Structure formats: C-alpha cells, structure tokens
Amino acid sequence: MADASTTSVIVPAFNEGAAIAAVVAALKAGAPWHEVIVVDDGSSDDTGERAREAGAIVVRHPYNKGNGAAVKSGVRHATGANVLIVDGDGQHRPGDAQRLVSRLGDYDLVIGARSSATQATSARRVGNAALNWLASYLTQRQIPDLTSGFRAVRRECLLEFLHLLPNGFSTPTTTTLAFLKAGYSVAFEPIEADRRVGTSKIKFARDGAKFFLILLKIVTIFSPLRIFVPVSVVTFATGSLYAIWTIWTQSHVTNSSVLLIMLSVVIFLVGLVSEQIAALRFESRR
Questions:
Q1: What integer pLDDT is reported at residue 198 of this predicted model?
Q2: Same domain, yes or no: 85 and 100
Q3: 239 and 203: one domain?
Q4: CATH of the domain at 103
Q5: Which end of the chain is more exposed for a tag (fewer CB within 10 A), N or C?
C-alpha cells in the first residue's frame, strides 16, 4: 500500500491564479506529501507566484505548451516513487487524494472516476459517455471515466509511456488506454467533482475529434486487430452482398464486388502485420 510520503503531487496549471493557492494549501493540509509540484504552463496571470507562496515547488514553462506537456514536465521533476496528478482548477477534492494513492499497492494506475452528475454540461456528459463506450469496446474492459485528470500512478510505469503522451488535453485518455493494453493493473475509484473555478480550457466541438483519433492511435499501437478486423469484416460483407445482388439481378459479378473483397483481405493482412509489430514492441520492452 502506497502512502503520501512516497508520492509526488503534480498540478498542471494554466491561468489558474484564482484557484491554485487554495488547491495547494488544501493538498498540503490534507496529507504529508513527498512534494507538491505546480507546473505553470506559460500562464499570463500570477499562477506561479500564488502557487509558490502557498508552498509548492513551481516549474514554469516559458510559453503555453499544453496540459500534457505540463504533466510530462512534472513527472520528469518528481522524485517520489508514486505520482498523483491533480487539476489546478479546484474541482478535485483533496480528501479523495489519499484514497486513490492508497490503492497503488494493488494497482499500477488508479483513476478518480467522476459520476455523470458532477460533469460540467449535458454536451460534455454525452461526449464522455460516447468516448467511454468506444474505449470499453476497444480495450475489452469497462471504463467508467476515460478523461478524468485525477489519477495516482506508479512513476516507473508512467515513465515507460511518457513518449506517447501528447502535449494537449488527452493525457488521461492516452495513459488509461496505454496502461490497459500493456497489461498493467488499473482501478477506477468513484469520486465526486466540484464545480471548477474559472472557465474550462477544453472545447467539446474542437477537442472531441482529437480524443477520438487518440483512441484509435493508442489501440492501433497496442491492439491493432480490434480496429482492422471489424473494418475488414464490414468491407468483405459489403462486397459479398453486392456480388450476390449483381448475380441475382445481372447474372454476373461486378468489378466493384471483387475489389471490395480483395480490399477486405488486404486490410486483414495489414492488421496481422500490425499485430506482430505490436507484439515485438512488448518483447523489446521486456
């Protein structure tokens, strides 16, 4: 069982001057953390100064690089055996932090899974539900909250996937899928999230497509056949049904049917090759 004294808390923050001091103070009052690191991601307000005054170690980016880049900087500067990632907007309750960390003895990654009622808007809830469903299908594991940024993780495991993390707002998505597909133990701990201070940096319409592409990218890296086989089956079925229809109505098979069937075979073979490449990735890791 992990505890606070072995855990570095990382708080990525961009223009969170209104909330960051209270977040740091609450964290330090709640448990004897190994260290609290606030990564000021090129804020134009006094986020860094307020965090330092509250007792945090401040790592500052000279310009805004993105939430993922801030997390990566925090992980590189952390010296604890475990890492707890907390948003700097005040929505995560410090009282839940020790509960997540305490489960690291049995799990490699523990995610604070928010109830749908505490997520910001109806559009956000619908979008997150769709992402959760797709991720659950791709990983064959029930995922109640794919995008929660509140998570505790063993630092040595996270370092293994640090190069995969994008600089934008999809670090939670990437780490969750990477850990699941790599065979690490992942737990989802129910939490309640408070309303954030200030306005969200994520825009549903702009960032939704990015999350979807990241899902496909990570699963293609770790389990390609979950993508290639369904596409191949659909293509083969379409070509076969079209061939049957043209034989019935025109007494011959069209070139389109043959091309679709051949395409399905090519897609399946590419999937097999990709699966072998994914297996070699893990062999080299071990």
A1: 47
A2: yes
A3: no
A4: 3.90.550.10
A5: C
